[in-house]
Amino acid sequence: MKIGVIGSGSWGMTLAIHLLRNGHAVDVWFYLEKDYRQALKQRELPDYLPGIKLPESLGFTTDMETCIQNKAMILVAIPSHTVGMTLTKLSGLIAADTVIVNVAKGIENDSLRTMSQVISHVLPNHPVGKIATLYGPTHAEEVVKRVPSTIVAACPDETTAQFVQNAFMSDTLRVYTNTDILGVEYGGSLKNVVAIAAGILAGMGYGDNTLAALLTRGLFEMTRLGVVLGAKEETFAGLSGMGDLIVTCLSTHSRNRYVGYELGKGRKLKDILEEMKMIAEGINTARSVHQLIQKTGIEMPISEQIFQVLFEEKDTLKAVAELMGRAPVPERHSLS
């Protein structure tokens, strides 16, 4: 199968390499000329995948139209806040039977659309049943080294989900399917906000008890919002909910956890971001979640505190104190 990958960051390049290993012909589009030249000349991208040689048979281009031409599948692997403006340029250029697979995790600010909804909005003539999302507890640094991992391909059309499943399935990457694309997308996006919180707690020196409390109540918040927005409750107990939450909150590979960790040590967000080469998607998502809280009236105390820490420079000790000092309520694990 011929596949085009829009995005040459750590995850996009990892999936390109994975698909090549699975026997597909893969072209990768580069946004930055310097990265393109480095990859072409040295077959390496040390800022994104240090120590990994890029296969000679992997195609590289800076021309997006060339990358998507005559492709059965197009992988969207760019920062979530750029998905809409980037794919707008491809309007009318993608065949109706081409499957578009999104791997960017986030909720668009202001419009509050998930990534599949963004894609449908900017490509209104493309069939919804040909737009899928691939999310799960999969850090690029491990998948590229063939560490056994699992992921979920989501699409309202089960045939398309199975098509994506077959393309990515290997002896080191087990792919499941799910028709609840909203649940998968909300799970994979909202957990990044909780991961920032996990990093903050670690940076402040708190221990396992505090982290366990955060993950448990954070998952409940994610589920509560997702169900109100049309997702299925059980999806959040799966790979893109609980699974992605665990790996992003615990792993040193996590950029969102790193941002939180540095905040927990007392650093300013601006200073942290100036040093980072890659995007921590949870920052923009925290703003979208705040907007969703205002729109729906849903109670999400953890997410709201993270928004205030990120955008209002709230002291992290005060944020923890306010969470611990909330009025007593019954524990609930299910929304039904």
Notes on the protein architecture:
- The longest helix has 24 residues, at 181-204.
- Helices cover 49% and strands 11% of the residues.
- Strand 4, helix 4 and strand 5 form a beta-alpha-beta unit.
- It has two domains: 2-179, NAD(P)-binding Rossmann-like Domain (Rossmann fold, 3-Layer(aba) Sandwich), CATH 3.40.50; 182-324, N-(1-d-carboxylethyl)-l-norvaline Dehydrogenase, domain 2, CATH 1.10.1040.
- It has helices at residues 10-21, 33-42, 64-68, 83-88, 115-122, 140-143, 158-168, 181-204, 208-228, 239-250, 255-264, 269-275, 282-296, 301-311, 316-324; strands at residues 2-6, 25-29, 59-61, 73-76, 99-102, 131-135, 149-154, 173-178.
- The chain is built from 15 helices and eight strands.
- The chain has 336 residues and is of the alpha/beta class.
- Strands 3-2-1-4-5-6-7-8 form an eight-stranded mixed β-sheet, sandwiched between helices.
- The model has no long low-confidence stretch (mean pLDDT 96).
Radius of gyration: 19 Å
By DSSP (H or I, 4+ residues per run), the number of helices equals 15
Strand content: 5-15%
Report helical residue fraction.
Answer: 40-55%
Residue-averaged pLDDT:
96
How is the main sheet built? 8 strands, mixed
Q: Could you give the count of β-strands? A: 8
CATH class of the largest domain: Alpha Beta
Q: How far apart lie the N and C ends?
A: 44 Å
- Broad structural category: alpha/beta
Which stretches are poorly predicted, pLDDT < 50 over at least 5 residues? none
Q: In terms of quaternary structure, what is this?
A: single chain
What gross morphology would you assign? Answer: globular
Question: H/E element string?
Answer: EHEHEHEHEHEHEHEHHHHHHHH
Number of domains: 2
